[in-house]
Design brief:
The protein is an all-alpha fold and about 130 residues long. It has a domain of about 70 residues. Helices cover about 60% and strands about 0% of the residues. It has five helices and no strands. Helix 3 packs antiparallel against helix 4. The chain is elongated and about 65 Å long. The termini are far apart. About 0% of the residues are buried. The C terminus is likely disordered. InterPro entries: DnaJ_C_subfamily_28 (IPR052573), DnaJ_homolog_subfam-C_membr-28 (IPR018961). This is DUF1992 domain-containing protein. Keywords: Coiled coil. It comes from Desulfomarina profundi.
Length: about 130
């Protein structure tokens, strides 16, 4: 038995004695499955280790940021703040597209973009220079 396996076995035994490893919680229940079908086979274990450590692949972090910006744009009532967030979203999408070499699905949603621009222009107050 190698030293790592020996240490792991000792830690498991200690946890069982303390009651930290309760079997009742998982008894007769399937373990939760993760959908990793899109991850290449040679990267699955590395991604799982990183995920368990609290790290996410850059693509997932970027998707989270896109989602956060979209929600912020939808919830913001101030047109200036909304426009600023739309510019940030546009820059982020350009970075994603440049890295991948193709356009993302989000940028292809022309109807959504058109509706947002219309809403901003409809809600915008006329400036003193336009009078």
């Amino acid at each position: 038995m190698n030293s790592i396996a020996f240490i792991a076995e000792q830690k498991i035994q200690e946890a069982m004695k303390k009651g930290d490893l309760t079997v009742e919680r998982w008894k007769n229940r399937p373990l939760p499955m993760e959908d990793d079908s899109l991850v290449p086979d040679d990267l699955k274990m590395a991604y799982k280790i990183l995920k368990n450590s609290g790290y996410l692949p850059p693509e997932i972090e970027e998707r989270k940021e896109v989602k956060r910006l979209e929600e912020l744009i939808a919830a913001t009532e101030d047109e200036h703040v909304r426009l600023k967030q739309m510019k940030k979203l546009s820059v982020l999408l350009m970075k994603i597209d440049a890295r991948r070499g193709k356009t993302s699905n989000i940028t292809q949603q022309d109807d959504y973009y058109r509706m947002v621009v219309e809403k901003i222009s409809l809600n915008a107050k006329p400036s003193s220079s336009s009078k």
